[in-house]
Write a structure and sequence with these properties.
The chain is of the alpha/beta class and about 210 residues long. It is built from seven helices and seven strands. The chain is globular, with a radius of gyration of 16 Å.
Length: about 210
């Protein structure tokens, strides 16, 4: 899969043996316990922290990423944590292909890239795979993390309202459960303390 996205993320993951903490994202762990369902899609799963947490909490997960390196690390960790049988890791350049739905939960956490991609179109296609009664959960950076690389600070992070407007979903088919910001303290990759703002979009298909 030699696309610009694949090359970019392979180079990123080659920088160090682990990029992410392995822990699930905060908003996911707070919101998902209130949901029902059994099948989840994790868009841009990276090294699999969210997917493994979901599997440990009873979900069957399809976890997708463009990076073969990230997927290999995730699969290895899932095996070590005893949840490999509940996770189907798939390689996709999401601007070209998506896995087969439907899903009770479609989760996209920090699905940003400094490489050009039609994020709105991808999220719109992902929303179409949410089963009736299911949830679309998008959590974005409200602003660049303080420890992010310089090019990230110049990246446009749309507001939660902008993201929902771009999805152009049918109001008769969807209800907004949560739309806005959440603030939290976090620790950066090299131990830096920082205050982060997340944009949280939680939509339920009627």
């Amino acid at each position: 899969m030699e696309t610009e996205h694949h090359t970019h993320w392979e180079e990123r993951y080659a920088e160090k043996p682990r990029i992410w903490s392995g822990r699930a994202n905060t908003q996911l762990t707070e919101i998902v316990p209130q949901l029902t369902g059994s099948r989840a899609l994790d868009l841009g799963c990276g090294e699999g922290g969210d997917a493994m947490w979901l599997a440990e909490h009873g979900w069957n997960v399809v976890a997708v990423d463009v990076s073969s390196t990230a997927l290999a690390r995730a699969a290895e960790d899932a095996q070590a944590r005893g949840v490999a049988d509940r996770i189907d890791f798939q390689q996709h350049d999401l601007s070209q292909t998506l896995p087969e739905g439907p899903f009770d939960l479609v989760s996209a956490h920090f699905f940003h890239s400094t490489v050009e991609m039609d994020r709105t179109a991808i999220l719109r296609r992902a929303a179409a795979m949410v089963a009736p009664g299911g949830t679309l959960l998008i959590v974005d950076h409200g602003q660049a993390p303080p420890w992010a690389a310089a090019e990230v600070h110049h990246h446009h992070f749309p507001s939660a309202q902008e993201v929902v407007a771009g999805l152009a979903l049918d109001d008769t088919q969807w209800e907004t459960v949560r739309l806005g910001t959440a603030e939290r303290d976090a620790v950066g990759p090299d131990g830096q303390q920082g205050h982060l703002v997340d944009n949280v979009i939680q939509l339920r298909r009627r």
